[in-house]
């Protein structure tokens, strides 16, 4: 499985890369939505999963989700927002734009694994 | 029209406990110990601004040593290996997480800025149009960290200095 982690914080990208790496994902990173679109354009095999921060410079996570959903080549990619935006209205906006799931920061590795299991991306009951 | 709301130390404490459990002390062996004041938490200030129905700032302040410990924990490296860029990134993300969660406790219609990190002492007076409304001060591995909220003087009814 392949994943892309999109977050303007290097520390957060590292934490997410560590979790995904332990689950067997090959991970690439991007520091904002536009950088992610650029990376994805050059990838022959598109990732199965994108973990997307919301509050980023250049192109935010919601704009990225919208752009990804409009791109037929990225239609199969599972989109998970990973963000501090926890208001119900924001969650609804993200899901309406095309995000499949929502993880609120701060999160434990266990919570992230559970969410990925719910999406069928890791076996149910998987742990780190 | 802005809504008057004063977040509490309990609000901050709830968020900070989650941050510690998730990233800084997942084993639960090295918690933040609350103290009356963290006077030494003045080397680095990371903040996000909140605008909309509430105006103010959420600030993470710490000593250089505490900042390096936090960065080392986030980045899975030794404190001696932490660079200035690591410090700025990690403390900015801490401010973003705490600020974003504070925002969720505020009335709807607030927006949170990208983080801003300053390496300078507290007396630099970074937020002249706001007053501190609450602070959670603590020691972590003997080093000082403080989380505080600064509310626009317009909301508190005070004139700007």
UniProtKB/TrEMBL annotation, chain A:
<protein>
    <submittedName>
        <fullName>Two-component system, chemotaxis family, response regulator CheY</fullName>
    </submittedName>
</protein>
<dbReference type="InterPro" id="IPR011006">
    <property type="entry name" value="CheY-like_superfamily"/>
</dbReference>
<feature type="modified residue" description="4-aspartylphosphate">
    <location>
        <position position="53"/>
    </location>
</feature>
<dbReference type="InterPro" id="IPR001789">
    <property type="entry name" value="Sig_transdc_resp-reg_receiver"/>
</dbReference>
<keyword id="KW-0597">Phosphoprotein</keyword>
<feature type="domain" description="Response regulatory">
    <location>
        <begin position="2"/>
        <end position="120"/>
    </location>
</feature>
<dbReference type="GO" id="GO:0000160">
    <property type="term" value="P:phosphorelay signal transduction system"/>
</dbReference>
<dbReference type="Pfam" id="PF00072">
    <property type="entry name" value="Response_reg"/>
</dbReference>
<dbReference type="InterPro" id="IPR050595">
    <property type="entry name" value="Bact_response_regulator"/>
</dbReference>
From TrEMBL, chain B:
<keyword id="KW-0145">Chemotaxis</keyword>
<feature type="domain" description="Chemotaxis phosphatase CheX-like">
    <location>
        <begin position="46"/>
        <end position="122"/>
    </location>
</feature>
<dbReference type="Pfam" id="PF13690">
    <property type="entry name" value="CheX"/>
</dbReference>
<dbReference type="InterPro" id="IPR028976">
    <property type="entry name" value="CheC-like_sf"/>
</dbReference>
<dbReference type="InterPro" id="IPR028051">
    <property type="entry name" value="CheX-like_dom"/>
</dbReference>
<protein>
    <submittedName>
        <fullName>Chemotaxis protein CheX</fullName>
    </submittedName>
</protein>
<dbReference type="GO" id="GO:0006935">
    <property type="term" value="P:chemotaxis"/>
</dbReference>
